[in-house]
Design a protein that fits this description.
Blueprint lengths: L16 E4 L5 H10 L4 E4 L26 E3 L36 H5 L9 H15 L24 H13 L4 E2 L9 E2 L5 E2 L24 H7 L3 E3 L2 E8 L5 E8 L2 E6 L3 E3 L2 H12 L13 E4 L2 E5 L14 E3 L14 E6 L3 H10 L4 H9 L4 E8 L8 E8 L5 E6 L4 H20 L3 E6 L2 E5 L25 E3 L14 H18 L3 H4 L14
Parallel strand pairs: 1-2, 1-11, 2-7, 3-18, 11-21
Antiparallel strand pairs: 4-14, 5-6, 8-9, 9-10, 12-20, 13-16, 13-19, 14-15, 15-16, 17-18
Helix pairs in contact: 1-5, 1-10, 3-10, 4-9
Bound molecules: flavin-adenine dinucleotide and iron/sulfur cluster.
Flavin-adenine dinucleotide binds next to strand 8, helix 6 and helix 10.
């Protein structure tokens, strides 16, 4: 994004807030605080890019967090491009932009099933923030939404790709409700007042490599330009590795390294938004915020099993916005032998990623070559489902350090009976659906997605890391907002909820900030439908 001409602050200036990380959690906070008149600096470990930098070539894409993470447990997770991004915009640079809201029942999963944790608030608390985020980032989707008829998406749905059209036929055949998916992709030229104009999606299908035209919502084309215009400074290539505390235990300065040089930004408050792996890593490394012993605990990642098949029709799975159909009919299936539920989404895929996924699932040699030769006839769908927290799944610091001198994170993950039963249920359903429309050579890819839950929020300081607004129970001027604060995984893909939490955390902070009246309290976006052209 364009950073020329932005306001700059001195390291010795005590800025009102430092925001660490510019992804789904950090960017809305940066924008909201800057719009309220605060002096804010974002420190981002990744580089700065512009949409034109993204190659329409999966082997050349370079927007991932690729520092080594050690993976352990019975079903160790694959890190890298699968679940973490890096750069000004964080993981939203290469996310899929599939953005359902939470099913309200998921926020009370412990009360319903006795597993994971309840959220400290209900859906009514998130709803106004969801509506503001959707209006601002430009979410396309159906009106009405079958599972929530009152919901209105601001933009018309994006075009359906071939997998979506085939999945619709399959759902019709089996009596499953399906509809256009909520997608943070603008289906028409879109300009929210005060934000940049974004052109309509051209259905190229390269969302996971970074959208070259800015039709896909990423933080660098939405919240971050608003933040910079309001006076925020963003420092790319700035890796945070320490904090300096004052005599009262408050953070007085953030220590970071840029171009090999250690620097120190003084500040009054810190918003830690580095994601569910790097946030606990930094807290464990610096030894703060962990009186509960919960930092790094409750690591979760969604059940994200996919089924691919071959069709007589030409599918061309690289074309079109990949995830353009959804069903939420399985959020609480009547025959479930598991807690929670899952949604199903249609999938598109670019060729090398398909090859890698098939190889990882055990397909090799001639079988793999033969499958890939039929690439233009491949279609897929996948689930995204609840993962319950378990003491077996956690993050700790390993004995090895990386080039930053900080110990590498080691993440233990074992899929439990709940995830296994859910995956089995999803496979049976997706198999029936694909068979109903004549797919052959069905292939299951067992996988997990997203990094969630290592600094959970809660009312009880002995059992959680932050309060219900994201403020550390231990360090008065430290706030956390990213994937890490989720008390349970929820079945919905996480980014929309993180952005909503970002605005909520920022506004709770502003209300608690004694200087807030002087600083003003202008909402980033009013809760109205945006101007489109
Ligand atoms: C391939 C892929 C597809 C996805 N698709 C979807 C989807 O379709 N829908 C959905 O809802 N979600 C999706 N997600 C997940 C979604 O992108 C993340 O859940 C979300 O972006 C997480 O937000 P966050 O703020 O926790 O972290 P991030 O967005 O990852 O941002 C964290 C930022 O902090 C920076 N950082 C980390 N450590 C430091 C440090 N020490 N110093 C300075 N900066 C640091 C990182 O470089 C990064 O930019 C997808 C993710 C991936 C990887
Ligand atoms: S399909 Fe649309 S949103 Fe995705 S990269 Fe292409 S233009 Fe961007």
């Amino acid at each position: 994004m364009k950073l020329d001409g932005m306001k700059r602050y001195g390291n010795d200036e005590i800025v009102d807030a430092v925001v660490i990380g510019t992804g789904a959690g950090g960017a809305p906070i940066l924008a909201r605080l800057a719009r309220a008149g605060l002096r804010v600096v974002a420190l981002e470990a990744g580089r700065n890019t512009t949409p034109e930098d993204y190659p329409a070539d999966e082997s050349a894409a370079d927007i991932y967090w690729l520092r080594e993470r050690l993976s352990a447990g019975e079903t160790p997770e694959a890190f890298g491009a699968n679940n973490s991004g890096s750069g000004v915009g964080g993981s939203t640079l290469h996310w899929g932009a599939f953005c359902p809201r939470v099913d309200p029942r998921d926020l009370r999963i412990r009360s319903e099933f006795g597993v994971s944790e309840n959220w400290p608030f209900g859906y009514e608390e998130l709803l106004p923030y969801y509506e503001r985020v959707e209006a601002f980032i430009g979410v396309s989707g159906p009106r009405p939404y079958p599972w929530d008829p009152a919901r209105r998406y601001p933009l018309e749905p994006v075009l359906r790709n071939a997998s979506a059209q085939m999945m619709q036929r399959a759902c019709d055949a089996l009596g499953v409700r399906a509809t256009d998916a909520p997608a943070a992709v603008v289906s028409q030229t879109f300009a929210y007042p005060g934000a940049d104009v974004r052109p309509a999606c051209i259905n190229c299908g390269y969302c996971h490599q970074g959208c070259r035209i800015g039709a896909k919502t990423s933080m660098d084309v939405t919240y971050l330009p608003v933040a910079v215009r309001a006076g925020a400074e963003i420092r790319p290539d700035a890796f945070v590795h320490g904090f300096e505390l004052d005599a009262n235990g408050k953070i007085a300065a953030v220590l970071y390294r840029r171009d090999g040089v250690d620097e120190r930004q003084r500040c009054a408050n810190v918003f830690l938004c580095a994601g569910a792996v790097e946030t606990p890593r930094l807290l464990l490394h610096t030894g703060i915020g962990n009186s509960s012993g919960q930092v790094g605990r409750n690591y979760m990642c969604h059940v994200a099993t996919q089924i691919w098949g071959l069709f007589e029709d030409e599918m061309r799975p690289n074309k079109g916005y990949p995830s353009s159909l959804i069903t939420e009919d399985f959020m609480r299936p009547a025959d479930a032998d598991f807690a929670g539920g899952y949604l199903v989404q249609s999938l598109g895929i670019v060729p090398a990623t398909l090859g890698q996924n098939l190889a990882r699932s055990g397909m090799w040699g001639d079988a793999l070559v033969d499958y890939l030769q039929r690439y233009n006839h491949v279609g897929g769908m996948g689930i995204n489902g609840e993962c319950v927290s378990s003491p077996k799944n956690y993050l700790e610091l390993s004995d090895e350090t990386d080039e930053t001198g900080v110990r590498k994170p080691k993440i233990y993950f074992s899929t439990g009976p709940n995830e296994q039963n859910m995956a089995r249920h999803g496979i049976a359903l997706m198999t029936k659906l694909w068979e109903a429309v004549g797919a052959s050579r069905l292939t299951t890819i067992s996988r997990n997605a997203h990094t969630i839950g290592t600094c959970r929020m809660g009312d009880d300081a002995s059992d959680s890391v932050v309060d219900d607004a994201g403020r550390s129970h231990d360090v008065e001027n430290l706030w956390i907002c990213d994937n890490s604060v989720f008390p349970s995984s929820l079945a919905a893909n996480p980014a929309l909820t993180i952005m909503a939490l970002g605005l909520r955390t920022a506004e709770t902070f502003l209300r608690s900030e004694p200087r807030a009246p002087r600083l003003g309290n202008e909402p980033l976006v009013p809760p109205t439908v945006p101007v489109t052209a």
